Amino acid sequence: MSDVLTLTGLVATTPRHLVTSEGLPITSFRLASTQRRFDRSQERWIDGETNWYTVTAFRQLAINVSTSIEKGQRVVVTGRLKIRDWENGERTGTTIEIEADAIGHDLSWGSTVYTRSVSTSAAASEAAPSDETATPEAEAVETAEAPEPVAEDAVPVPF
């Protein structure tokens, strides 16, 4: 059983992107999540303790995170909680990790521009509509110039 949770916080480290020898893209970063509450007696916001998480994304999410998320940005992360104990010589500790299912900018703090990434396998699997159900919009899409094919190992570049 895995625990799924959603966190908001600040990207505390520059996202680290790598591709394994098997071709698996992985991006990870540290997330600082601080609870805030409004103290009515002082009439101001007070920061609570900060929780630290290592957020890890795989596959297409990893590629998109590496080109979209930067240190210092506010994000929302949804994923599975992983708690791991570790030992390194005389030191021991616990690492709290989130295996991300979704990551995006926290729009409570700013705005962003979305660019959809299209994989070549998804584009090839879409079937063309039949003439019986064709609409003017569909005809316009059919006559649009097709994008150039992308190599399987290519990393998408944002527009």
Tell me what the structure shows.
- 15% of the residues lie in helices and 46% in strands.
- The protein is of the alpha+beta class and 159 residues long.
- It has a domain at 3-113: OB fold (Dihydrolipoamide Acetyltransferase, E2P), CATH 2.40.50.
- It has a five-stranded mixed beta barrel.
- A hairpin with a 4-residue loop joins strand 3 and strand 4 (44-58).
- The chain is flat and about 55 Å long.
Set out the fold topology.
Layout: E1 3-11, E2 16-19, E3 25-39, E4 44-58, H1 59-68, E5 74-88, E6 91-105, H2 120-125, H3 136-143
Parallel strand pairs: 4-6
Antiparallel strand pairs: 1-3, 1-5, 2-3, 3-4, 5-6
Index terms:
3 helices; 15% helix; single chain; 159 residues; alpha+beta; OB fold (Dihydrolipoamide Acetyltransferase, E2P)
Question: What is this entry, summarized?
Answer:
By secondary structure, the protein is an alpha+beta fold.
